[in-house]
Amino acid sequence: MLFDTRYFWAVFTSKNPEFSQKLRSIFDSSKTAFASSISLYEVYKLSISHEDRTVADLRVNSIKKEFTIIDVDPEIAEEAARISHRAKVPMADALIMATARKLRIPCATDDPHFTEVKRIWV
Fold this sequence. Notes:
This protein has about 120 residues and is α/β, with parallel strands linked by helices. The chain is about 65% helix and about 10% strand. Among the domains are: about 35-70, no CATH class; about 70-115, no CATH class. It has a five-stranded parallel sheet, with helices on both faces. Helix 3 (about 35-50) packs antiparallel against helix 4 and helix 5 crosses helix 6. The protein starts with a strand and ends with a strand.
C-alpha cells in the first residue's frame, strides 16, 4: 500500500487515541508499506512550518525507516501530468497517485482528490 501525506500528517498530529489506532491498523494490515518521496517533502515542509526543523527531521527519518520510499521517475512524472490534466488535481497529489498506479496498489488517504486510485481510509 502507498501511504499519502495526509496519512502521515494524521498520524503525527492526531490527539484521538481511537483514530490513531485505526491509522496504525491500516499500516499493520499492509503487506508492504510504500511512501512517495513527494510525501517526504510535504511532511518536512508542514512540520518545519508548524513545529521546527528538529521535529521535521524526526518525522521524515521515521518514515524513511518504516517505509520503502519511491522516487519520481519519468514514467511517474508523465502519468502524473496526465492525471493532473484529466482530474484537475494539484501536482503533489497527481505524483502520489501516479506512483500508486505504477505500483498497482491502493493508497492510504482521506484526500477527496484521489479519484484515480483505490483509496483505503476514506
